[in-house]
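Intended use. Records like the one below are meant for learning the mapping from a protein sequence to its folded structure. Do not use them to infer anything beyond what is encoded.
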Amino acid sequence: MSHPPNDRETGARLARALKLGYQVRGLVGRGGFAEVYEVWDKELERRLAVKVLRPDIAWTSGMLQRFKQETRTIAKLQHPNILPIHFVGEGEELVYYAMPYVEGQSLGDRLRTMGALSPAQSLEITVPILDALQHAHEHGLVHRDIKPDNIMLDTKTDRPLLVDFGIAKRLDAEGGLTQTGFVVGTPYYMSPEQALGQSNLDARSDLYAFGAVLFQMVTGSPPFDGESSQEIVGKHLAEPPPEASQINATVPVWLSQVIVRCLAKKPEERFQSAAEVARALRSGPDAPAGARPAPPEEKVPVSAIDTAAATEVVPSEERRSAAVPVPRRRRWWLALSLPALAVLAFGAMWLLRPRLVFENRLIQPIVVNAGGEEHRVEPGDQVTIRLRGGGPRDVMWTMEQPSSSSGQALGVEVFGVLTVSRSLGPARRAANARPGERAYLAPLITNNTGSPLI
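Structure written out for the chain above:
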């Protein structure tokens, strides 16, 4: 196992690369891909934070070239809530970029010390961050690592600042980090599509992570937790998002609904832009109907239907004729014809026929194999499979693995086997990613937070 080089050695190399105009004061942080040094700009008399790609990682020339391209793109962003990049450089076998040194604390530190924030405090921080995200998305940049530790709270200006666009996470789209199922991110805030290693992430993946951050801000904890990274990722893939208002009664229902929509499993069911989320948050309870998901339609049980109100109004002449008593010796079942009885019997047999109703709760298509017959089920859909023969039977489902732009399968194979007994009526089952007898998921999670993951 390789160990990071001594920070004094790297600091000395950085000082030589920056030359005489700068003084390297020391290491202030280390993550999975980079180290951050405090540097004093002698000429302009300002403090800088210089992020250096860790020299103990085998960066290829293609990765480094992409890194420099990404940093130059980010340097063009002009937004008061995005920490700017002053310059990009390389030397002494180091590649680095410089940013302003922020006096303050991260949102993650504030949540760890203060716990949940009020809804009003949360919106003061998150609405400007959404504006910053919208600006970045309009310039074709997806952050890919939205989390409390990447939101800085500037003590001097009280501004929330979005930092660390996860540049190193997109270094080589043609054959580097992301081509071997390499999943990078923080499990607590990772969108389902990012957890599956999909390379074509768009702005809606950032909105999912934003929803997880906002949930933590108003409740004190991320939406999903677990004993391992695998378990947390599995919940992002399969568990329905919790409602913040049910955990913290001070959270308005409308705000809880906004968060739930951000955390939808399918990108098309989320808000489609950061600006749309910001409008919903600014409007609050007065947001238009389309800004928040409508509450689920309440289904009234048949027994609760007012049959008197549903009775057809009968004209007086027809009521008189209908009032003629029917001879007592006639029974209701005699009024049914033999064809009607046959239809009822057939309907009962159809309803009670043994069958498997299989639902796909993942975000990738699955293939269900039952008795040699294969059925492809899209995400969120279900298939009904007739069960023939006596006794229980095994049904196997396999998820179609996402693939990279070059056609290489990403991640690991996800599948399950379940036994269905042949009984009357439907047997309902689902493909999900919950831990059970078999560990269905084994994503590779890289910790770039600088602190251990549970």
